[in-house]
Every structure is written in C-alpha cells, then in structure tokens.
Amino acid sequence: MNHMQYDSSKHVSAYLCMTKDIGVGGNLFGGTMMAWMDEAAAIFAHQYTHSTRMVTLRYTELLFKEAVRVGDIVHIYADNPRIGRTSVTFDLEGRVDTRVVFQTTATFVAVDEAGRPTPIALGD
After folding, report:
1. CB 39 within 8 A of CB 56
2. Could you tell me which of 108, 115, 91, 118 has the C-alpha nearest to residue 5?
3. Residue 68: CB partners within 8 Å, gap ≥ 6?
4. What's the CATH class of domain 10-110?
5. What pLDDT, in 10s, does the model give residues 53-111?
6. N- to C-terminal Cα distance for the chain?
7. Per-domain residue ranges for the chain?
C-alpha cells in the first residue's frame, strides 16, 4: 500500500498512547494498536455505508512500520473505499505526526439481525 495522501483521506479517530498501553518492549503493545485500528475501521465502515450492522470480515497484511511511545497521539485515517454488494473495503493508516506507524486494508460486511450478509443501501 502506498502512503495515503493527507488531502484524500478521512480522519476517523485519535488515541493517546499511555503507560498502560505499553508492552514489555517499551512501545505500544501491538494488540492495543489492533483494537484501536478495528474500532476506527468499524466507525468508518458504519459512517461511510450508513449501515447499522457492519462486522469485520478481514484485514490484509498489517504492517507495524514505526514504534509508538508514551505520549504519542495515533491518528487513524481511512481512504480509497470500495463498495461491493454487501461489503466495503478501504485502506487504513495510523500516523503519529507525519510518521506512518501502521498500514492495512480492511473489509467490513453489512449483516442482518441473524448475522447473514445483506446488501448495502448507500444513502439510507
């Protein structure tokens, strides 16, 4: 994935890295970053599609590119959304200032009350 352009990406969320978020290596614990990433992706999928039930289907290769330390604010951006019949796929990137700290591509699926895929009706 190429580095996203600031002017084309949508800022979704921001998280402050605190002492409680640090792993044994002295940096942000990867599992915490993944939880932040999934929450931001869910927010974007919901806002972009206006679907009330969006669930995570998959992430492509997740690249942890730079360390995040206590006091860093991780801003998460989404870009390049692609709508399918029941799903939306988009690029996701985390940045601290101008440093890219993670990159991946997310796919979320719209589901009905029973958890079955349902068509996305944009604009509803």
Report:
1. no
2. 91
3. 17, 27, 28, 33, 74, 96, 101
4. alpha beta
5. 999 999 999 999 999 999 999 999 999 999 999 999 999 999 999 999 999 999 999 99
6. 31
7. 10-110
